[in-house]
Design brief:
With 343 residues, the chain is α/β, with parallel strands linked by helices. Helices cover 43% and strands 19% of the residues. The chain contains 13 helices and 15 strands. The longest helix has 22 residues, at 95-116.
C-alpha cells in the first residue's frame, strides 16, 4: 500500500486529509511542530480516529537536518506539504519569520526530497494570494456581493502572478520552487493554489479561516469585525472535497507534474461575508451585529477560482454544496463548543 507524509499534518486540513487517506488504506505519517492553536487537539482526535496507527514526528520544517532525517526515514510515495505560516496579517508583523517558514521551510522540503527521496510525488498547498490584488481586473457590486465583471468562470492559472504582502511573496516563492524542481531536477511535483477551505476541526481565528471564525464567534457571542464593506466574496471549498482533489492528483501524478492548479469551490460555491452572517443568524437563531473597519491591505473584493483545469486534468469537481458544508461546520462547532471555551 502507498505511503504519505503530511507536513502540517496536525492542522485542520492535515488531520482531515490524513484520515481520508488512512481510510483508503494508505500508510500515513504526519509531521508538525504543534505551534498553532488547536493542533494538539486535532492530533489527539486523529490518533483516536486511526487507533494510533499513524506515525507522528514533532519537527519544525525550518530545522533542515531534522526534517531531512524524517524524509530519509519515511521515503514516502507522496508528500503533501501543508506546513505554513497562514495569516496575511501575521506576515506584516513578522515578515522574516513568515519567510523562514513558508519560503525557506519549503525549500528545505524540496531539497530533502531531491537528495533523499527523489521518487516521492510532492504536492504543495499554495494560495490564491499569488495572484495579488488584481486591481486591473474589473469587478461589480451585486446584491450578493462583488463579482468579476468579465471572468465568468473565475480566475484561471493564466492570470499573471503578482505577489502581494509578505505572505503572498513567501507562499509564491514556494509555489515557484515546487514547479521549478520538476523542470530542473525532474522531480514529480504539483502546486495547488487553494482558495478558502473550511470544515470540521478548523480552529478559525480572525486573521485566518474566516468561515470557521464567523461560525465560532457567533456561537460564543464574540465580536465580529468586517474589514471593508462586507460584500467581499470568495469561492469556498469543503475540506473533504479538497482531500479528494489531493487523491485525484496522486492518481494522475505523472501527467500533471510541474503544473499548478487553482483549487476552490468555483463559481457554484461562493459566499460573501454578509451572506454568511445572515445564514448563521438563521441557523443559530441569533442576531449578529458586526462592527466595521477599514479594508486590510491586499484584500481582494472578490476571488473566485476557475477550476476547469482541475476538473479536466484531475477529473475532479466539488461535490459538497456550500450551505450544506457550513451546516456541517455549525454542527461540529456546537458539538465541540467546549474546545473553544478552553482556547
Amino acid at each position: 500500500m502507498p505511503s504519505i507524509l503530511i507536513t502540517g499534518g496536525a492542522g485542520f486540513i492535515g488531520v482531515n486529509t490524513a484520515k481520508a487517506f488512512y481510510q483508503e488504506g494508505w500508510n500515513v505519517s504526519v509531521l508538525d511542530n504543534l505551534s498553532r492553536c488547536g493542533t494538539e487537539k486535532n492530533l489527539q482526535w486523529l490518533l483516536e480516529e486511526t487507533d494510533s496507527d499513524i506515525a507522528f514526528y514533532q519537527v519544525d520544517i525550518r530545522q533542515q537536518d531534522n526534517l531531512s532525517d524524517v524524509i530519509k526515514q519515511v521515503k514516502p510515495d507522496m508528500l503533501l506539504h501543508l506546513a505554513a505560516q497562514v495569516a496575511v496579517t501575521t506576515s506584516y508583523l513578522n515578515p522574516r519569520e513568515d519567510f523562514e517558514i513558508n519560503a525557506l521551510g519549503s525549500l528545505n522540503i524540496m531539497e530533502a526530497v531531491r537528495l533523499f527521496s527523489p521518487e516521492t510525488f510532492t504536492l504543495y498547498a499554495s494560495t490564491n494570494k499569488v495572484y495579488g490584488g488584481m486591481e486591473d481586473v474589473p469587478v461589480k457590486l451585486t446584491e450578493n456581493g462583488y463579482k468579476f465583471r468579465d471572468l465568468v468562470s473565475g480566475v484561471s492559472e493564466f492570470q499573471p502572478l503578482d505577489f502581494h504582502s509578505p505572505y503572498g511573496c513567501s507562499k509564491g516563492v514556494a509555489d515557484q520552487y515546487t514547479i521549478d524542481y520538476a523542470r530542473i531536477y525532474n522531480l514529480n511535483t504539483c502546486s495547488f493554489r487553494q482558495s478558502c477551505i473550511y470544515g470540521p476541526r478548523q480552529f478559525g481565528i480572525e486573521d485566518q479561516g474566516w468561515v470557521a471564525w464567523f461560525t465560532i464567534a457567533s456561537k460564543l457571542n464574540k465580536s465580529i469585525t468586517l474589514y471593508g464593506d462586507g460584500w467581499q466574496t470568495r469561492d469556498v471549498l469543503n475540506v473533504k472535497d479538497l482531500a479528494a482533489a489531493y487523491m485525484a492528483a496522486w492518481n494522475r501524478r505523472s501527467s500533471i507534474s510541474g503544473q499548478a492548479f487553482n483549487i476552490g469551490g468555483g463559481p457554484d460555491n461562493t459566499l460573501c461575508l454578509r451572506d454568511l452572517l445572515k445564514f448563521l443568524e438563521s441557523e443559530l437563531n441569533i442576531a449578529i451585529n458586526p462592527s466595521y473597519a477599514a479594508s486590510r491591505p491586499g484584500d481582494q473584493p472578490v476571488f473566485i477560482c476557475d477550476i476547469r483545469k482541475a476538473m479536466s486534468l484531475l477529473e475532479w469537481t466539488p461535490t459538497i454544496n456550500v450551505y450544506d458544508g457550513v451546516k456541517e461546520l455549525i454542527d461540529w462547532v456546537q458539538a465541540n463548543i467546549h474546545l473553544f471555551s478552553q482556547a
